[in-house]
Amino acid sequence: MNHDENEEHWSDHAICRGADPDLFFPIGYSVPVLQAQEEAAKAICANCPVKAECLAWALRVGEPDGIWGGTTPEERRYLRRTADAPARRPLPVIVVRGDASESEHASAA
Questions:
Q1: Residue 48 marked as a ligand binder
Q2: 54 annotated among ligand-binding-site residues
Q3: Does 105 score more than 80 pLDDT?
Q4: 103 pLDDT more than 70
């Protein structure tokens, strides 16, 4: 997809423009510090008018780092896994000899 230099992009409307990039790429040496950094970035994302577009972009390109669209890398991995997962169907009942009585075998079949 070609973008004209004058064409607007969703990122032109992001409220994080001009913010310290380190805020959105937290590096903490302890869990509380890392969580505080993530929460601060997510607080900015929460009020962003292009949050959905930002998240969609990060999911589409597989962005491995940083806070994008109010999500952490772990949250995006979860979203990608669940979006790509096929619909779940119940597994067939498998009875192993000695696991159930004869009446349970008949009802399972």
A1: yes
A2: yes
A3: no
A4: no
Helices (H), 4-108: 21-24, 31-46, 51-61, 73-84, 102-108
Q: Which residues of 31-69 are buried (b: 16+ CB within 10 A; e: fewer)?
A: eeeeeebbeebbebbeebebbebbbebbbeeebeebbbb
Token pair for 9: 């992009």
Q: pTM for the complete prediction?
A: 0.69
Which sequence spans correspond to the domains of the chain? 8-82
Report yes or no: 13 and 49 within 8 Å, Cβ to Cβ. Answer: yes
* Non-local CB neighbours of 46 within 8 Å, separated by 6+ positions: 70
